[in-house]
Amino acid sequence: MTIEDIQAEIVDEFSMFDDWMQRYEYMIELGKSLPLIEEQYKTEDNIIKGCQSKVWVHAELEDDKLVFTADSDAIITKGIIAILIRAFSGQKPKDIIEADTDFIDEIGLKEHLSPTRANGLVSMIKQLKLYAVAYQTQLS
Amino acid sequence: MQDTALDIQTIRKDFPILSREVYGRPLVYLDNAATSQTPRQVLDVIVDYYSRYNANIHRGVHALSQEATDAYELARKKIQLHFNIGSTKEIIFTSGTTHSINLVANGFSSILKAGDEVLVSAMEHHSNIVPWQMLCERTGAILKVIPMSQDGELLMDNYRELLSGNTRLVFCNHVSNALGTINPIKEIIDEAHKVGAAVLVDGAQSAAHIRADLQELNVDFYTVSAHKMCGPTGIGILYGKEEWLQKLPPYQGGGEMIAEVTFEKTTYADLPHKFEAGTPNIAGGIAFGAAIDYLNNIGFDAIEAYENELLEYATASLLAIDGLKIYGTSKRKTSVISFNLEGIHPYDVGTILDKLGIAVRTGHHCAQPIMDFFGIPGTIRASFSFYNTKEEVDTLVAGVIKAREMLL
């Protein structure tokens, strides 16, 4: 599936919920089911700055696709990063770089997009894209 | 509320913001330690200033300038009376506590020598740590820390041991922003004076709750931010004993702070203007005075009694929640409760509470050393003001229970 298809799928899933509480409960579930990053990658270097909670992201190239793993010490943050990883992991770096992130707004998480927001969703997206840029250079 | 002298429902009507909604729910504002809300009486003063007599002060010959100068200087007088300060010369208007502390730290750059010692309490806000670290880097002075107990109380025996003939300065907050502890500052000041050290007390967190008598405290420097006591942001004071303010060199150069300027030499204006370069926050200063009037009309005794009642009620209600731990259990506290739920990140709780319309602070509260001391990433902090109600405490408790259900 393309990034766009996955994002559409996520938007579809979230559209089933009537209120924020259900959306957050779902996000918390996603956070709990996020496959864990290997302990060796939970390093200071892999922490995304600008988050009130700690977020670690690790990226690895498998063939020509980028695979992300992540973790956070806060469960809602983990849910958010799980959504991002679902949308971007296993995709080509070039597609990740070019992908837009409007779907975040569509699933009702717009308030997390503010650059001053302490959870740093913006920083997370930026970090995933930075990894993509780095590996894109390596591929070409 | 029947069990208090204050008519909270009438008081709440003074604060327009308290009737707004957040995410379709009534706002429950419990982040008063970060900033307090502003009553209509103070807002009106700001609008009145800009509507009727906005003018630059201290230099104009025209009527508006004179009115603005009088109002601004009247505010200084109100501050003098409120904190029982000896002279208005000892009151420097600043942009707030951080500015005040930096002004003093900068001034001491030319006074401290290598090997001098500076003591700072273990429960300081970053703004009362970093300027002193910078000062120590510039001068070669040594920064030492007064430790605290698990309850969040300063260990006074250790403090006495740290004091010596080398101690030049002691810094301590009157009330801890992260824990709510009311520190024994009178004792801290008296002990420091015995070894000839000066004391700066950061009053940012106390000013809205406790009416400090600065002459009785015999403190050398005291700092206050208006926005923590129902005034606007961007204005505060540095109180300094006249002898100290005479000793410290000016902080910033500019207009207003000079007596005479030639290209060869400038002589500085008298206190307090020596430290007030440039056009000040005039509206802010006047509104600060109005905020002090507002609080005194309610009365600090009544405020303290009611906030203690809220604190006790909230502490008991929160402790009834499974797995809830309160940080900062000093016997003397202001109405601040820092807590965590076992196994849950404070940020998650704060996020759910926000969606329920409840404003609390989460994180390290700019006091990372305290969080390191307790070995936690941060806390959820609910801080109450005299305009909060027991019903709002109930809403908070229900919110925390809901958050726990969702997050565990």
UniProtKB/TrEMBL annotation, chain A:
Q: Where is the Fe-S metabolism associated domain?
A: 11-129
So which domain of life are we looking at?
A: Bacteria
Sorted alphabetically, which Pfam families does this protein's record hold? SufE
Cleaved signal peptide residues:
none
The record's section on InterPro entries has: Fe-S_metab-assoc_dom
Q: Which family does it belong to?
A: Belongs to the SufE family.
What is the name of the protein in this document?
SufE family protein
Species assigned in the record: Poritiphilus flavus
UniProtKB/TrEMBL annotation, chain B:
User: What reaction(s) does this enzyme catalyze?
Assistant: (sulfur carrier)-H + L-cysteine = (sulfur carrier)-SH + L-alanine
Q: Which protein are we looking at?
A: Cysteine desulfurase
A matching Pfam family: Aminotran_5
Q: Which residues cross the membrane?
A: none
Q: What is its EC number?
A: 2.8.1.7
Q: Which lineage ranks, top first, belong to the organism behind this chain?
A: Bacteria, Pseudomonadati, Bacteroidota, Flavobacteriia, Flavobacteriales
Q: Which GO terms describe its biological process?
A: cysteine metabolic process
EC class: transferase
